[in-house]
Amino acid sequence: MDTPPVVPVDSLEGSLIEKINLLTKDFENKYGFPPEFIARVPGRVNLIGEHIDYCGYAVFPMAIDQEILMAVKPRQDQHLELSNVNPAYEDYSCELMNFDIDKGVPHWFKYCLCGVKGIMENSSKSKNKLKGLSARIHGLISPGAGLSSSSAVVCAAALAFAHVNGLVYKKQELADYCARSERYIGTEGGGMDQAIAMLATQGTAKLIEFNPLRAHDTKLPSGAVFVIAHSLAEVNKAASSLFNCRVMECRLAAKVLARIHGINPDSVTRLADVQFLLNKTLPEMASLAGLYLHDDPYSKEEVSKLLEMTESQLENKILSENTKDVNVFKLRQRALHVFQEAHRVWQFRDICNSGSVTALQELGQLMFDSHSSCRDLYECSHPQLDNLVEVSRNHCLGARLTGAGWGGCMVALVPENEVKSFIDHLKENYYKNLPTARGRDLDEIVFATQPGSGAAIFNL
Ligand code: NG1
Ligand code: MG
After folding, report:
1. Ligand 2 centroid vs 149 CA: distance in angstroms?
2. What is the 3 state secondary structure string of the chain?
3. Closest protein CA for atom 7 of ligand 1
4. Can you tell me the ipTM of this complex?
5. Where in this chain does the record put each GHMP kinase C-terminal domain (predicted)?
6. Mutate to test the pocket of ligand 1, among 176, 180, 184, 193 (most ligand atoms within 8 A of CB)
7. Closest protein CA for atom 6 of ligand 1
8. Which of 31, 159, 286, 303 has the fewest C-beta atoms lying within 10 Å of its C-beta?
9. Does the pLDDT value for residue 162 go beyond 80?
């Protein structure tokens, strides 16, 4: 069974062992007893395929070296005791049988609770037999950067809680439980982040397909590496309705397209469902969206009429809690982005497998196209991110925002022998004059990255 590795900490080397030693000492100072194990979950960078996982389409992420480390001591009672090395994040504790994750302020510990809840809901043991834990988290992934720090926390907590209780699950199962349980925070994510966190393997990016979850190793052409650069525009997606608004626009676009083609809108929730029922290719779906959906935003009234329901039925049956007040939906633009971006993912995979001498240039072009689409059709970029991509344009093979967007990081494909000059170029032409970059360690903000490994437990 392909389960997350559980290995002794002595088998590790390099900087990870130093970080684990520091966290272990810090845990002892905090609680007065040592931890028993460390759960480690990496962040990720999505190379291409943005905002399409929740529409049912394949994505192309890889794990990065930055990670969440969670030091854990199992308890004999049902108490959850959570603390964070970062003093800005307050301590939290609760009882297993008695906690609630409300969709209000997305406090850090709620991500831990999501992970625990994901396991509790799927555990074969009865709830009153489950044991609690004392845990201390060290987050080494920039929050709000589009590198999936949130899902790494959810996955670390789930993995740790399962391990404390002797529950063993396949990587796919854990990814699925975590993808569903992170939605208790309020964001209607698709599952890419939890999938790559659990399924990543060192040295390869993964093409990830959903329903059922499958990951295919994809070897990237040699001669170039990915550089991640933070725009320093920060955003907490869970604290706004921007993310869910896009999910809802896609859901409505799917239902409207279904209705137009004589399909019962109740039978579809994702754009991929409509494609499946119409049995069309992705370029054909993009043409249909261009043809049948209008450019002007749809009002709530118009969508309700098209779907033959009242506005309050639309709010209560289809929209999420935090999008009930949204009154305009850009269905054509969002659907076009999704079908075209989903197509770019398969093109990206084909180019990786083609062995073509121009493969790197072709991949780069797809990344630039993806960024333009996120900026113009999906409107999930940020002026600073757009500027960062423009500053990069003639100095790399391709660049795009990564993750949900509205701020956060760019990922750029850079020839191996030009990485240093590219990073220097960004320092000189992007960060130097950016007030928010002053006093920051730029090596933590712009760095080259290789495909890293997935979630694991290290026994101390
Ligand atoms: P980030 O960048 O972590 O907010 C979110 C979603 C993904 C995916 C991307 C956009 C969650 C947990 N993550 O990622 O599923 O939809 O946006 O491609 O909701
Ligand atoms: Mg996230």
Report:
1. 6
2. CCCCCEEEHHHCCCHHHHHHHHHHHHHHHHHCCCCCEEEEEEEEEEEECCCCHHHCCCEEEEEEEEEEEEEEEECCCCEEEEEECCCCCCCEEEECCCCCCCCCCCCHHHHHHHHHHHHHCCCCCCHHHCCCEEEEEEECCCCCCCCCHHHHHHHHHHHHHHHHCCCCCCHHHHHHHHHHHHHHHCCCCCCHHHHHHHHCECCEEEEEECCCCEEEEECCCCCEEEEEEECCCCCCHHHCCHHHHHHHHHHHHHHHHHHHCCCCHHHCCCHHHHHHHHCCCHHHHHHHHHHHCCCCCEEHHHHHHHCCCCHHHHHHHCCCHHHCCCCEECHHHHHHHHHHHHHHHHHHHHHHHHCCCCHHHHHHHHHHHHHHHHHHCCCCCCHHHHHHHHHHHHHCCEEEECCCCCCCEEEEEEEHHHHHHHHHHHHHHHHCCCHHHCCCCHHHCEEEECCCCCCEEEEC
3. 189
4. 0.98
5. 360-432
6. 193
7. 189
8. 31
9. yes
